[in-house]
Amino acid sequence: MRMINLNAGRFTPLLKILPFVIIGLVYWIAADARHALNPDDKLLPTFEALGDAIKTMVMEPDELTEEPILYTDTIASLTRIAKGLGIAAAVGLVLGIIQGTLPLFRALLSPFSSAVSLIPPIAILPILLVLFGMEESAKVALIAIGVAPFLIRDTQQRSMELSEELLIKVQTLGASTWQIIVRVVLPHVMPRLLDALRLSLGSAWLFLITAEAIASSEGLGYRIFLMRRYMEMDVILPYVAWITLLAFLMDWILAVIIRKAFPWYRKEK
Hints:
The protein has 269 residues and is mostly helical.
């Protein structure tokens, strides 16, 4: 049998967790080896040290909020990324549909959107800090500006996938431009926009961590770069794992929304 025809079958759950188990074992062996040579090694802390650091971050209150440090950082980061992605999704949906559906506006806006999408978002962070200062607006704006161009171009492309025959049929039945957009284009692009949002999560977290590292007094990215000064890997590694878990949960929630709200979409794919 060819490899291309092999399925995991009942071993699928096991195969899904196998890479994480292997990474954990490799880390455990490497950390033990380094601590056998140097008990004060800080590069690869033991699982016991990681557990103690996690307990401290969960239990110890933040000086400003008096809430647990991990809770304060998590709420701050999730609030920023939710606002940034929300703005990016709204802008991507509106401009993407306009550019994909209306040829006149496509000729006007599409070259501009393409040019903006080529600007490295990290390069404009200093400009945002000058405009908004150290406030939350700069961090939210960086996420929105970084993600929105991709969503605009993807939504435009998805809007243009609608067949010419279908659009002619609904016009023949008397539908106005607004009705075509709301009744035909919007249901077509919504699940695809959420799919594109899932693909943007990695970039959004990258922009968030970068902004928090430079201009913040709380947040997951801020804490990681603060701990880096003291080589506190027992805090940095759990924070990286926590960010990964949060991003995974956000991706899973979006996938559930797509499956529940647009059941026809998966069947179509």
